[in-house]
Amino acid sequence: MAVIEARNLTKVYGRQVACREICLSVEKGQIFGLLGPNGAGKSTLVKMLVGLVYPTAGEALVAGYAPQDIRGRRQVGFLPENFRLHGWLKGQELLTFHAQLAGLDGRAASRRAAEVLELVGLAGEGRKLVANYSKGMQQRLGLAAALVGDPRVVFLDEPTSALDPLGRRQVREILLDLKEAGKTVFLNSHLLSEVEQVCDRVAIINRGTVVASGRLAELQSGPATVAIRLAGLTGELEAELRRRYPSLQLEGDRLTLALGGREEIADLVARLVAGGCRIYEVTPGHSSLEDIFVHLVQEGEQACG
Amino acid sequence: MWLMALFTFREAWRKKVAFIAGALTLAFLILYGIGLHFISGGSMVHTANPTASAASYYAMMQAITLFVLGIYLASFLVAGLAILAAVGSIAGEIENGSLYTLAVRPLSRRDLLLGKFLGLAAMLVLYAAIFFLALAGLVYWQTGLVIPGMLPALGLFILIPLVLLAVTMLGTTRLSTLGNGVLAFALYAIAVVGGMMEQIGALMENTTATIYTGVVTSLILPADAIYRRLVATVVDLMPAGNGQDIPHFVNPQSMLGPFGSQSTPSDWMLLYTLVYIVILLAAAVYVFNRRDV
């Protein structure tokens, strides 16, 4: 069942298209990663999904409701990218206030505030003024504010940008715990390794358009590399392969080249054997999320100009 | 909405807005009290019967004049606080990113905006009431005069910051903090100048262009009109001369000159002011509901 659904979401500011006909769907209990270069339209998309920005066209449903619907908002938590918390409040007071806004009464709100403070590693810091928190502590507090209403759906826009490696690991663990508890997480992050570690599905957005989406394994089954140790490669066969695979490199007995997909490896090996080569070792290259991301973004840049 | 109102009131309190305004107001009251002491020169109003003697009557007129001047200056401070408190309450929070976490809560934008209005209004009403009563108290202490029509006058004085708050709340839903501040202060200046022109026109018995100018500026922003009505409420309740040692024709309004209320706004203007606040708030909700955050 889709908990987050976007249908042709489009946002235009004057002549600038921030998002163009974005369609995506996130199932219950998934961690969904949204990737894209700066200015690709990620934050605009997230803001449309949480009801801060009105789409120019298209529609979205979050937890079964339109993003502006109060009933849906009871089930949504949001950590914005460039946010500031009310510095005149103490950490515990801020979270209690957010818990009350989320519908909890006084005592329950206070209890819940203490729980989430502990969850994000700020137990014992609740009596300090938010203005005196470090940037990393404020980010943790922002995450706590997103979680204080015990939401079914959590949108996190760059949740670890101000955190040290330990803090990042802690956030990853929180995300996995949320998933374990059946919550749905929509993660917008620049940190590809982080997305790779926790996300079930990802979408890559560039110039306001989704250029790829799917399960990580599906995306990684796209363009691939292979390294082959062989003997008996003739000049004629090498020339033929260079025409077909411009990336081909031959160093001693080691041949490396890029393929359109892993399924082409078998055909390549068959052609080499048919051409009289002896194959000693075939090593398929791992295509990281970063490789895919860079490839798709560069492809988009070339297409535009 | 009430949760938001309480939050906004606490914010004004914790950020020491009230403390800073209070300190400035105290300085103003001290200066005013010193001025009052030396200007009145010890001439006291017969509190139980101000018309008991010509000396008491003229002391009363002097005291009223000083009170009205105090209120005139106080209305500037109250208006300034209203504008400064609300000028960035939406736009500023969008600019610095603190509205995002609130605007996604299960709270309609109407409740968010009206909650902020109510919180600020509570702070301003409290401030204006204390300021007004402090002025009236000083006048009583130094001259023995109990301000006539004190309660309706207090109600009118409280209305001045509420009008400016409504204007500024509408502005902050659409304009930047700076733009909104410039607009609100400009509108207030226009209202004050228009009101002054209207009174001068009435004093000179020029009942056409200058008076209409004042009426138009009062329709644009009825802050000065409320002040004029307040002055009329206080001054018109003063007892007339007894026709013996105090001439009947003594007109306290003429003593006040352009600070008085020769041309007094009607009850319709008061009704207009209340409708004006409601319409501006409705417009603010409408605009805020449709804007991207």
Note down, in words, how this protein is organized.
The complex is a heterodimer of chains A (305) and B (293). With 305 residues, chain A is an alpha/beta fold. Chain A has helices at residues 42-49, 70-73, 91-101, 106-119, 135-147, 165-180, 192-198, 216-220, 235-244, 264-274, 289-304; strands at 2-13, 16-27, 31-35, 57-62, 76-79, 153-157, 184-188, 201-206, 209-215, 224-231, 249-251, 254-259, 278-284. Chain A has 11 helices and 13 strands. In chain A, helix 3 packs across helix 4 (106-119) and helix 4 (106-119) crosses helix 5 (135-147). Chain B is mainly α. Chain B has one domain (2-290). Chain B contains 12 helices and no strands. In chain B, helix 3 (54-86) packs antiparallel against helix 6, helix 7 (150-172) crosses helix 8 (177-203) and helix 8 (177-203) packs antiparallel against helix 9 (209-220). The interface between A and B is medium-sized, with 30 and 20 residues. Chain B: This is ABC-2 family transporter protein. Chain B: Pfam families: ABC2_membrane_2 (PF12679). Chain B: The chain crosses the membrane at residues 64-92, 113-141, 153-171, 178-197, 268-288.
The figure for the number of domains of chain B is 1
Biggest protein-protein contact in the assembly? A-B, 30 and 20 residues
* Subunit organisation of the chains: heterodimer
Biggest beta-sheet profile of chain B: none
Number of E-state strands of chain B = 0
Mean pLDDT metric of chain B: 88
Principal-axes shape call of chain A? elongated
Order of H and E elements of chain A: EEEHEHEHHHEHEHEEHEHEEHEH
The proportion of strand residues of chain A reads: 25-35%
Q: What structural class is derived from the secondary structure elements of chain B?
A: mainly alpha
> Order of helices and strands of chain B, N to C?
HHHHHHHHHHHH
Measured on Cα atoms, how large is the radius of gyration of chain B? Answer: 21 Å
Distance between the termini of chain A: 40 Å
Provide the spatial order of strands within the biggest beta sheet of chain A: 5-6-7-3-8-9
Shape of chain B: elongated
- Helical content band of chain A: 25-40%
Low-confidence stretches of chain A: none
Helix count from the secondary structure assignment of chain B: 12
Which architecture of the largest domain in chain A would the CATH scheme give at its second level? 3-Layer(aba) Sandwich
Distance between the amino and carboxyl termini of chain B:
19 Å
Q: Determine the CATH topology of the largest domain in chain A.
A: Rossmann fold
Transmembrane segments (chain B): 64-92, 113-141, 153-171, 178-197, 268-288
Protein name (chain B): ABC-2 family transporter protein
GO molecular function, one term (chain B): ABC-type transporter activity
Keywords (chain B): Membrane, Transmembrane, Transmembrane helix
